[in-house]
Automatic annotation (TrEMBL):
Organism: Nitratireductor thuwali
Matches recorded under Pfam families: Thiolase_C_1, Thiolase_N
UniProt keyword Acyltransferase, yes or no: yes
Record-annotated Thiolase C-terminal domain positions: 278-399
Protein name, per record: 3-ketoacyl-CoA thiolase
């Protein structure tokens, strides 16, 4: 079976852009990826377009990708629309890999774009309300929030302002982790402080101000133990990746020195399990599959991008990826093991907490960062000598975990 390579990446800044449409941001990201690869748009033989909320926000359903890509002249090829919650973009990336492995062409595009920010706050926050079983949504939300029962919520530790209901769910996951392993709010704050420090060096990040642990703890509360800087913001943005087969790399005359090999890509859905059965978390199982497919292990990874919609997400995912034992994610973060220059740098981009989280673009935004790192082109946030990199991107909620997750390994 042919090897698959990422040959071009492009990404818009993530942030709040009232004056930019989904079409605008798609065009910007795709053109940047084409320029990065040194390719013309007419060499693309298939495209997978990721978007999760344009239907909710703008009532644009069904053919979002065909519309966004036609605007920039990409037409007459297979275009597949991908919606898979916050894992939509990594799913599109995985499907582009499969398209090439199935010998449907030599060059394929994966692109994600999202316009989430709105002055209509109710509309904006309600975009997340269908990311679980809507037939009993209130019951599901309460059950997930109750995972942390037994950990006292200090008075004044819940925001009086509107926020995504998913923050209560993440707070429940956080309190379960605290109750089970003794994780502390300070350790979660260390994750956020580290990611805000990383994003100060990322010109495409939504937030670029460094924060100390003390500043994170003193920030406005959202849902205990989470404060505002521990939570990903509402974001607009787009990211794109061009993939080629090994034969296509030669046929198209592309620079092999800048091509990054896809060593593994695993997509799976969740399963029914007890909340305390951490070893069978779906991203733990996906990571084990990815390591086996790549012939590598956690110890071989130079850098990681993980889904930190809140700081607790990063703690959970570095455990699932095998970088630390279960229960050690918080202490390792406080010790600085996951910062640039540490034992295993995590989210050098700033992660979702600081870089931003336009859900339909997030997974390819992670790929953009890892490709940049593996090429040695990340500037002040460069991880020295990066050879292998891993991305974890989850989406939705079902049972006691994400509904779906994708784990991708890239390497030189």
């Amino acid at each position: 079976m042919q090897d698959i390579y990422v040959v071009g990446v492009g990404m818009t800044p993530f942030g709040k852009f009232r004056d930019k449409s989904v079409k605008d941001m798609t065009c910007e990201a795709v053109n940047a990826a084409l320029e990065d690869a040194g390719l013309a748009a007419n060499r693309i033989e298939g495209a997978f377009f990721s978007n999760a909320v344009q239907g909710h926000m703008e009532r644009q359903h069904m053919i979002r990708g065909e519309i966004a890509l036609r605007e920039m002249g990409i037409q007459g090829i297979p275009v597949v629309n991908v919606e898979n919650a916050c894992a939509s973009a990594s799913t599109a990336f995985k499907l582009a890999i499969d398209f090439l492995k199935a010998a449907n062409g030599d060059c394929c595009l994966a692109v994600g774009a999202e316009k989430m920010y709105s002055d209509d706050r109710a509309l904006m926050f309600s975009a997340f309300d269908s990311g679980w079983d809507v037939s009993n949504g209130e019951e599901v939300a309460q059950r997930l929030a109750d995972l942390g029962a037994g950990v006292e919520e200090p008075e004044g530790s819940k925001s009086p302002k509107p926020y995504s209901v998913f923050m209560d769910v993440y707070a429940g996951f956080a309190r379960l982790h605290m109750k089970t392993f003794g994780t502390t709010q300070e350790q979660f704050a260390a994750v956020a402080a580290k990611n805000h420090a990383h994003s100060a060096h990322n010109p495409l990040a939504q937030y670029r101000d460094s924060m100390s642990i003390e500043q994170v703890l003193a920030a406005p509360p959202i849902s205990y133990p989470l404060t505002l800087p521990m939570c990903a913001p509402i974001s607009d943005g787009a990211a794109a990746a061009l993939l080629c087969t090994g034969e296509g790399l030669k046929r198209l005359g592309l620079d092999p020195a800048r091509a990054i090999k896809v060593k593994a890509a695993i997509l799976r859905s969740g399963t029914d399990r007890p909340p305390e059965d951490f070893k069978n978390h779906l991203t733990r199982l996906a990571a084990l599959q990815a390591y086996e497919q790549a012939g590598l292990g956690p110890e071989d990874m130079s850098v990681a991008e993980v889904h930190d919609a809140t700081a607790v997400g990063e703690v959970i995912q570095i455990e699932n990826l095998g970088f630390v034992e279960f229960g050690e994610g918080g202490p390792a973060s406080l010790r600085g093991e996951t910062k640039i220059g540490g034992r295993i740098p995590v989210n050098p981009s700033g992660g979702l907490e600081s870089k931003g989280h336009p859900v339909g673009a997030t997974g390819i935004g992670q790929i953009f960062e890892l490709v940049t790192q593996l090429r040695g082109e990340a500037g002040a946030r460069q991880v020295e000598g990066a050879q292998n990199a891993i991305a974890e991107n989850g989406g939705g909620l079902h049972g006691v975990e994400e509904a779906t997750a994708c784990v991708t390994i890239l390497g030189r």
